[in-house]
Amino acid sequence: MTTTILVSGGAFAPYDVVVGRGLLKAAGAEVAALKPTRAFIVSDETVAAIHGETVRASLAAAGLATGMVTVPAGEASKSFEQLEAVLDRLLVEGLDRKSMVVALGGGVVGDLAGLAAALFMRGIDFVQVPTTLLAQVDSSVGGKTAIDTPRGKNLIGAFHQPRRVLADIEALATLPVRQVRSGWAEVLKHGLICDAAFFDWLGGEGAAGASGDPDALERAVIRSVEIKAQIVGEDEKEAGRRALLNLGHTFGHALEAELAFGDTLTHGEAVALGCAMAFRYSAQQSLCSAAEAERAEAGIRAAGLPTRLSDVDHNFAADALIARMAGDKKAEGGRLTLILARAIGDVFTDKNVDAGAVRAFLIGEGAA
Ligand SMILES: NC(=O)c1ccc[n+]([C@@H]2O[C@H](COP(=O)([O-])OP(=O)(O)OC[C@H]3O[C@@H](n4cnc5c(N)ncnc54)[C@H](O)[C@@H]3O)[C@@H](O)[C@H]2O)c1
Ligand SMILES: [Zn+2]
């Protein structure tokens, strides 16, 4: 049984996100249906070792000429160096304009392979086969592709929508539980943005998904992709509704940056904490009720994710966090842009947040 979610917007060719079990094994038939001249897998070394052969064999069984290039696992592979290596390999292999790139892996592989596909011969098709929860619910949908440079993350990239996304819940069985939880944070975020009933389910009956229960995961991925697809469909590039997907990310990104993007907090953990902070700040400003902020926090905690600065082994300084939130621009007496909440499932963009009020809030949260 699979579920298909259509992603469509004015500016790009509509495509299906297929969610279910056994999709790695069915990848050959799924890709062959798109009629490429051949299919070439881009993966990372960890994922290739676990799932590479399943997908390669499936493509071959469907009659597709195929092969695979791998990059080292980890964020460092979102680099010019690895982009060049992947593109060079596609040239050496003799791919043409009708060839298909198959991105098999987490968000790192999806972003890198997607950008390579966007650039190769001015753009060829690609299929996303996301193998992390984060990639299934977030990075594989929406068409953003990118690499990092020493000057910052995701600064070089392109919009390039996939032709199809194959989200195999079984692929998540080998994912370390901390990675599952981190993806769960983005799932919770989707509930907080626009579906209170879903959020309550995630913190209650569905909570087992956060530790890998496949039935709960499947339902969570389906609803999450529906929400992201709807928002992206309304607004592929603009900062309108799509900006709501940044809930928890301005606080979260500041925390990650202060920790030098190390191992102390994963991106998802930072987003979880950032969402809890956005709700508490909203409550402090009387935009939403304190009870609502507590309910948001309880749902996040139910997944074993952090909600308080005291959950993190680091002394944060309010001024440093504000500087990060302002994008390192001078924020004194300045204004910040934050996604704030009226209630769970009802959030909005405020481009005129008083940095001084946020500073006071951060000190109340335990920052120095
Ligand atoms: N394009 C977008 O819209 C978008 C959105 C959110 C995040 N991102 C990007 O996504 C990246 C993070 O993605 P991620 O969290 O998936 O990280 P990742 O791709 O680095 O994967 C995390 C780790 O899990 C391993 N792994 C992947 N699948 C596995 C599996 N099934 N079993 C065992 N191990 C597995 C990987 O080898 C890696 O070591 C960041 O670079 C971020 O910028 C992009
Ligand atoms: Zn995120």
From TrEMBL:
Reaction(s) this enzyme catalyzes, per UniProt: 7-phospho-2-dehydro-3-deoxy-D-arabino-heptonate = 3-dehydroquinate + phosphate
Localisation per UniProt entry: Cytoplasm
Positions of NAD(+) binding: G107, V108, V109, G110, D111, T131, T132, K144, K153
Residue numbers binding Zn(2+): E186, H249, H267
Enzyme Commission number, as recorded: 4.2.3.4
Pathway note: Metabolic intermediate biosynthesis; chorismate biosynthesis; chorismate from D-erythrose 4-phosphate and phosphoenolpyruvate: step 2/7
Top-tier EC class: lyase
Domain 3-dehydroquinate synthase N-terminal, first and last residues per copy: 69-181
UniProt key word Amino-acid biosynthesis: yes
InterPro entries in the record: Dehydroquinate_synthase, DHQ_synth_AroB, DHQ_synth_fam, DHQS/DOIS_N, DHQS_C
Cofactor: how bound: Binds 1 divalent metal cation per subunit. Can use either Co(2+) or Zn(2+).
Cofactor(s) the protein requires to work: Co(2+); Zn(2+); NAD(+)
MF term (GO), any: 3-dehydroquinate synthase activity
UniProt keywords, alphabetically: Amino-acid biosynthesis, Aromatic amino acid biosynthesis, Cobalt, Cytoplasm, Lyase, Metal-binding, NAD, Nucleotide-binding, Zinc
Membership in a protein family: Belongs to the sugar phosphate cyclases superfamily. Dehydroquinate synthase family.
Protein's job: Catalyzes the conversion of 3-deoxy-D-arabino-heptulosonate 7-phosphate (DAHP) to dehydroquinate (DHQ).
Protein name according to UniProt: 3-dehydroquinate synthase
